[in-house]
Amino acid sequence: MATTNDLKNGLVLKLDTGELWTVVDFQHVKPGKGGAFVRTKLKNVLSGKVVDKTFNAGVKVEVANVDKREMQYSYMDGDDFVFMDTETYDMLNVPRVTVGDAANYLLENTLATVAVNEGNVLYIELPAAVELTISQTEPGLQGDRSTGGTKPATLETGAEVKVPLFITTGEKIKVDTRTGEYLGRA
C-alpha cells in the first residue's frame, strides 16, 4: 500500500475493481479553499483505455507488483508463444491472445519485454522498430520513385505492410511495431 503522495509516472495501481492501471500523469492540487487532492491520468494495463481520476490527498492506494523482464521468443507450442528468460533460462508460455498484434513482428530469437503480475502475463512489449525480410511483393516498374505510391508486401512473419513501389522481394526493411508502418530499408 502507498499513499497518493507516493504516486509517480509508470507506477501500476490495483484499484477497487481489481483492474491494473498505470499512472500516466499526476498533479498535486492545493486549492485555496478545501482539502488538497491529486488529479491523475490512468491507463488500463490490459485494454489501453485512458481515464482521469481524482484522489483526495493522503488516501491509500494499492500498488501492484509488475515484473518486467527481457525475454527471448523461442518457438510456438500449439497456440502458445514460448519465451525464455535471458537471465534464468526459464521458459514461459504466453497465449496468442496476450501476445496480440505483436505476433505480426515476432521472429525466433527476437527480444521482447514481458510484463508479469502474480504469475499472469499482462502484455508483451516489442522494440519500437524491427527488421524483417519481405517474402513476397509485386515487382516494381521502371521509373518507380520513392515519392510515388505504395504497394502491399508480405513479411516473413506473414504480416502485410504498405511499402514504396521500388521495394522488391527479399529486401530487409524496418517496420514500426506500434503502427505497422514501413520506416525504411534496413
List the helices and strands and how they pair.
Blueprint: E1 2-3, E2 12-14, E3 20-29, E4 37-44, E5 50-56, E6 60-63, E7 67-77, E8 80-85, E9 91-95, H1 96-99, E10 111-117, E11 120-125, E12 129-137, E13 150-155, E14 160-164, E15 172-176, E16 182-185
Antiparallel strand pairs: 1-6, 2-3, 2-6, 3-4, 4-5, 7-8, 7-10, 8-9, 10-11, 12-13, 12-15, 13-14, 15-16
Structure description:
- The chain has about 190 residues and is mainly β.
- About 0% of the residues lie in helices and about 55% in strands.
- The protein is built from one helix and 16 strands.
- The protein has a six-stranded antiparallel sheet with strand order 1-6-2-3-4-5, with no helix packed on it.
- β2 (about 10-15) and β3 (about 20-30) form a beta hairpin.
- The longest helix has 4 residues, at about 95-100.
- It is elongated and about 70 Å long.
- The model has no long low-confidence stretch (mean pLDDT about 85).
- Pathway: Protein biosynthesis; polypeptide chain elongation.
- This is Elongation factor P.
- It is found in: Cytoplasm.
- GO terms for molecular function: translation elongation factor activity.
- Belongs to the elongation factor P family.
CA radius of gyration: 22 Å
Write down the overall mean pLDDT.
85
Total number of beta strands: 16
Distance between the termini: 47 Å
State the strand order across the main sheet: 1-6-2-3-4-5
- Which class do the helix and strand fractions yield? mainly beta
Query: Low-confidence segments, ≥5 residues, pLDDT <50?
Result: none
Share of helical residues: under 10%
Query: Helices and strands, in N-to-C order?
Result: EEEEEEEEEHEEEEEEE
**Main sheet record:** 6 strands, antiparallel
Count the DSSP helices.
Answer: 1
Query: What percent of residues are in strands?
Result: over 45%
Shape: elongated
Subcellular location: Cytoplasm
Protein name: Elongation factor P
Family: Belongs to the elongation factor P family.
Keywords: Cytoplasm, Elongation factor, Protein biosynthesis
